Q: What sequence folds into this?
DNA sequence: TAGGTGACGCGGT
DNA sequence: CACCGCGCCACCT
């Protein structure tokens, strides 16, 4: 299975104005223990730049990858531009802006991976 | 092959 | 709350 190709499809499902953790992405990709790999893929640009990397934060809501953007505050600016509040600690409240995917979304993605042999 | 490094996460304190 | 220790795993020396 191609984890990075899966990541691309999963990331496209993250809604505008929402944020999600590395762990959630890994889970949807079928490898719940690979949260670190999600960060690795993003920092090394292994999944293309057309995915909403700005919406991926750690489980505490912190913008842990901000330093990898054009400028250190770029991620915060992009998120705020779509209505996501970021506090002075570079953190978003996932209870308010977190993306809680449905079982339907998870199954739909699984079917797609299966169908496309990913 | 062995050891080090993280855009990580969880549980304990 | 915060901080810390530890498990985790793909990659890179």
A:
């Amino acid at each position: 299975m191609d984890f990075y190709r899966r990541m691309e499809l999963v990331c496209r499902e993250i809604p505008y104005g929402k944020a999600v953790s590395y762990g959630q992405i890994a889970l949807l990709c079928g490898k719940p223990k690979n949260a670190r790999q999600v960060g690795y893929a993003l920092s090394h640009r292994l999944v293309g730049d057309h995915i909403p990397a700005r919406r991926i934060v750690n489980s505490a809501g912190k913008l842990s990858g901000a330093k990898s953007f054009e400028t250190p505050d770029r991620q915060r600016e992009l998120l705020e531009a779509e209505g996501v509040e970021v506090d002075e600690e570079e953190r978003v409240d996932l209870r308010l802006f977190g993306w809680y995917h449905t079982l339907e979304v998870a199954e739909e993605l699984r079917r797609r991976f299966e169908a496309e042999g990913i």
